[in-house]
Amino acid sequence: MERTADRTSLHWRSFANPLHAILLAFPVALYPSALLSDITYLNTAEVQWSNFSSWLIAGADCFAGLVLAWALLSLFFGRLRNAGGIGLIYLGSVAAMFVLGVINAFQHARDGWHSVGTFGLALSVLCTLLAFVAAYLAHSTRMAEQAT
């Protein structure tokens, strides 16, 4: 009787679907750009920098909402459900990024110097850091999968 070798192997992949990763790239690019725009506005007092920052935050919020929706669906139906505790930390960081981004958009919608100020700058810093954390978790966490 001949024995055949088990050809099952493991390979590792990120829990972020490639399309999910593309959507996540927008907040990762737009929130830091808004932060730089806020810093420039506070240094120059040119109103156009505040307007530019508001548009960057609005764009980042749109994509952050899509990323959050994808992460919620992925938690129940996709790759994220197999990621364990890291998946929940990722979902929490994306949710916090989205909520703080919306608050930041409302802050930047105010009139005059108070549209950015200390609170707006702090929100931009937090959104930027949360976007970086989400990207790190999505791309550095690997899951084992059986390939037959």
Describe the structure.
- The chain is mainly alpha-helical.
- It is 72% helix and 8% strand.
- It has 4 helices and 2 strands; from the N terminus they run βααααβ.
- The protein has helices at residues 18-44, 47-77, 85-108, 117-140, and strands at 9-14, 142-147.
- The chain has a two-stranded antiparallel sheet.
- Helix 1 packs antiparallel against helix 2 and helix 2 (47-77) runs antiparallel to helix 3.
Rounded mean pLDDT is 82
Number of DSSP strands?
2
The sequence of SSEs as H and E is: EHHHHE
Low-confidence regions = none
Let me know the largest β-sheet. 2 strands, antiparallel
Principal-axes geometry comes out as elongated
Portion in helices:
over 70%
Structural class: mainly alpha
Alpha-carbon distance between the termini? 23 Å
Rg over alpha carbons: 20 Å
Strand content: 5-15%
Number of helices: 4
Neighbour order of strands in the largest sheet: 1-2
Key features of this structure:
148 residues, mainly alpha, two-stranded antiparallel ribbon, 4 helices, 2 strands, 8% strand
Question: What's the layout of helices and strands?
Answer:
Elements: E1 9-14, H1 18-44, H2 47-77, H3 85-108, H4 117-140, E2 142-147
Antiparallel strand pairs: 1-2
Helix pairs in contact: 1-2, 1-4, 2-3, 3-4
